[in-house]
Amino acid sequence: MEPIPEKKKAIFESTLGLVREKGFHGTPVSLVAKNAGVAAGTIYHYFDSKETLMRELFDYIQQQVIHVVLTEDKKDTSFKECFFNIWFSLFSFYSGNPNVFRFMEQFINSPYNTGERELGKDEFHRLLFRFFERGINEGALKPMNPKLLGTLAFSNVITTAKILSSGRLELQEGELEQIPQILWEGMKNR
Questions:
Q1: Confidence tier at 175 by pLDDT (50, 70, 90)
Q2: DSSP-derived secondary structure letter, 171
Q3: Which structural domains are found in the chain, ordered by start?
Q4: CA distances from 174 to 15, 69, 177, 178, 181 (A)
């Protein structure tokens, strides 16, 4: 992942916090600038509009998620081990970054999310589906549509992070590990 300038990163972090707190419509560029400690003109140096800022922030987050997957998808490691490593790494990423999690939820359901970000057309989902295709080709997973398996697994991570972060569910020791295990049992090739 290519490093970004500190001011741009401050703008992203400011936006994430404000969107979590106030939503997209309650987050004007002037407030982002004030919260980031930069001049409004600095924001327009990096982004030509609020819409561009939101889309680039989404892309920036997607690159972080892609990095998580690529770090755990090791060709010299069994598919099963990679599956569990990716599941727990994505879970840790989303549960450890509540501002990111909230932003992504809002972005997906907003007008900022245009057609090029449809399921399977973005870089993250292509990577995810290729990962599950690998599992099928290696005989580790049932011969199914890799898009179905990828969608099922990723939505499981997201839902688990969401429910646990809301406090609606408290897990006992060892129960978190059972969640991807149940998923694995349903997907593995017998």
A1: very high
A2: P
A3: 1-47 (1.10.10.60), 50-187 (1.10.357.10)
A4: 36, 23, 6, 7, 11
